[in-house]
Amino acid sequence: MNYRSNSILTHIPQNRDGESILKQALFFANALNMRIFLLDVLKTGPAFLHNPKSKRNQIRHQEALNKFTEFVNKSLGVDIPDNIILRIGWGKIINTLIAESERGGYDFVMIDKSEHANNEHLSRADISRYVGKSYCPVLSVNKEYPITEIKSIVVPIDIIQGTKKRLYWVTFFARRLKAKIHIVSALHIDIEETKSLAYKNAGKIKQMLEKRGVECVVKIVKIHDQEKHTAVLNYTEEVNAGMIIIRTHQESRFTGKKIGKFVSEIVHGCKKPVFTVGGVTQKYDLDDI
Questions:
Q1: Which are the contacts of 64, defined by CB distance < 8 A and separation ≥ 6?
Q2: What's the distance, Cα to Cα, between the start and end of the chain in Å?
Q3: Is the Cβ–Cβ distance between 242 and 153 less than 8 Å?
Q4: What does DSSP assign to residue 79?
Q5: Are residues 159 and 255 in the same domain?
Q6: Which residue ranges does the record assign to the UspA domain (predicted)?
Q7: Is the separation of the CB atoms in 141 and 147 below 8 Å?
Q8: 3-class DSSP assignment, residue 240
Q9: Minimal CA–CA distance to 227: which of 201, 264, 275, 191?
Q10: Which of 70, 84, 115, 283 is positioned for an S-S bond with 2, CB 3.0–4.6 A?
Q11: Is the four-CA dihedral 141, 146, 150, 156 of positive or negative sign?
Q12: Structural domain contains residue 171
């Protein structure tokens, strides 16, 4: 059995974008009562990557860390608290974040998914690649739509997907944020909702969550001329949910396949934070939340 490290990793560039992302990171760190590692990734040539422990490169690293510390201090307006740890990475942003997630020590990684005024030039494809390749769950946020509270969370389900990996994090976020869970399934078939397999599966999940003290509702959305992701996004707006939790197939990390259209459209189509679940989550103990 694994236990959480109670830590979040967040990529923070040293610019205005970074200041906005930092505010979102602090919201989650404080609301979830977690430590947060702030990582700035600096571009460098192969000489540094091949010999990072040389005296010259160690001096460069310390200078970069000092500059990052000044940036964070100025952004916070106060001394850096003990639950915030600063780190410097070198190389390409997505590759560095993938390596950090594989190295371990974080419960999830937070990354900005916004496209407008993105000084780091991360595209939709870059964000989707990271969601598919990360060795731990990913929380994608949009700095242009800051979150100050989360009272409800939408959890889309599929009749063919497993639930154990998501169940831990749904319980975790619901308890820590005191949020109501909306279990949602979008169906093309035109049958009575209560007779569908999706409704029965959703009911089972609802019972498991309620046993753990989580308030839940089940919603079956019938769709005809629209995509499933559109129905889920519309419902998220309808109930003014503050977050979506979905499952991504971790096989993409090993096979090189991209994340599916549904996951990609939810991640990029939702203005609110989207938490994609995968990796080692199934080894966590639900009773340890």
A1: 40, 42, 88
A2: 14
A3: yes
A4: P
A5: yes
A6: 150-277
A7: yes
A8: coil
A9: 264
A10: 283
A11: negative
A12: yes
186, 221: one domain: yes
CB-based contact 109:101 (threshold 8 Å)? yes
> How many domains would you assign to the chain?
2
Domain assignment present for residue 146? The answer is: no
- Selection from 249, 223, 250 nearest residue 234 by Cα: 223
Largest pairwise CA distance in the chain: 70
Which residue shows structure tokens 């991209």? 258
Q: Please report whether residue 202 resides in a domain.
A: yes
Query: Whose structure tokens read 């934070």?
Result: 273
- The phi and psi torsions of 216 (rounded to 5 degrees) equal -135, 155
What the block records as the tokens of 15 is 């610019």
| Spatial contact of 120 and 13, defined as CB atoms under 8 Å apart | yes
- Domain of 181 in residue numbering reads as 152-272
What CA–CA distances, in Å, run from 224 to 50, 182, 187, 228?
Answer: 55, 21, 8, 9
- Same domain? 87 vs 169: no
Is-contact 218 206, C-beta < 8 A? yes
The residue written with tokens 């599916």 in the block is: 260
pTM equals 0.89
For residue 97, give the amino acid letter. Answer: L
Length of the chain: 289
Amino acid at 179: A
